[in-house]
Amino acid sequence: MADLGVSFVPPAYPYERLDGLKQLAKIHDGGPIDCSIGTPIDPPPSFVIEALARGVGARGYPASAGSLEYRAACASWMERRFGVTLSNDQLAACVGTKEFVGTLAGYLRLRAPERDTVLYPAVSYPTYAMGATLAGLRPVAVDMADGQLDLASINPADIDRALVLWANSPSNPTGALDDLEGLATWGRLHGVLVASDECYAEFTWAGRPRSILEHGTDGVLAVHSISKRSNLAGFRAGFYAGDPDVVAFLRLVRQHAGFMVPGPVQSAVALAYGDDEHVNVQREIYRARLELMADALGAFDVDAPFPDGSFYLWCSRGAMDGWELAALLAETSGIIASPGELYGDGAHYVRVAVVQPSERLELAASRLRGR
Prior knowledge:
Blueprint: H1 19-25, E1 33-34, H2 46-54, H3 68-82, E2 91-94, H4 97-111, E3 117-121, H5 127-134, E4 138-142, E5 144-145, E6 148-149, H6 156-161, E7 162-168, H7 180-190, E8 193-197, E9 220-225, H8 226-229, E10 238-242, H9 244-257, H10 263-273, H11 277-299, E11 312-315, H12 322-333, E12 335-336, E13 338-339, E14 350-353, H13 358-368
Parallel strand pairs: 1-12, 3-4, 3-7, 7-8, 8-9
Antiparallel strand pairs: 2-10, 5-6, 9-10, 11-14, 13-14
Helix pairs in contact: 1-12, 2-10, 3-10, 4-5, 11-13
């Protein structure tokens, strides 16, 4: 093919770089115990799957913003969980939150073409930065201090150019909680939208779940997903909520772009957001797995503190490089962990997702303990 002058070559997808670790782990009976990706493994609620099978809404085009039933269920959950009351024009559906994270910056640029910068945590889910890159914008990492965004470290010139500041609390990969009230206040002071990715909020261990919307909706968005909460990552459904002007703009732009959660999925997810008991059960499963693996890794001389939130352990072993530590874990226990370099400024860490069945994690734990 003739050279078309392509100037952007997409990088390898982060998890495609783990094949070498999987080869190391194959020496163990039963093969690798893959704790690299935060993919839920436990069964979703049966009543939700039954609702999906009924196919309600399959014939017509679904509402891009979400059906009234869908939005009402999401709003009711926000009020139950966070004490936040939202009107109908402050909330809309998205096709899983990853696509929302990956496209938000480009749409915001249409609204404010004089700004070209996306601020994001220096240790974070890589799609915040990639969303800026895909939109032809400047991704600027914000330093972290004790697991929180160090707002004082941001260059004033970058603030002036910023379209959005991404926050993630509880954090992927560290499990840290951020000061959401402080972030909202900072954003309003500087005229920068703060987008708070809260998809792990149900798995907050240090106190109750929190949302940035508890501190008002002006100048902020909260982003939520059914994937982790209800083990429904394959449904690709979530929602964003907050500043009514921003939500109205995004709803219309996304409608033109054709983003729609399938009708049967909307009907089923509305039921999932209406039930909290299955989440309470899942919380205890993840808590037990985190305790199991934190203890076993500690016995292997790996620092794996119990997180403030999420179902990840952010681990280190002295000054060992994260890829070296990941290789050691693969060889010793069969665990496939994600080297911290995949998440930005985390070269001496690995992330362990406790999403494998408990019996598999118990097997890994026994190997780490040398039994």
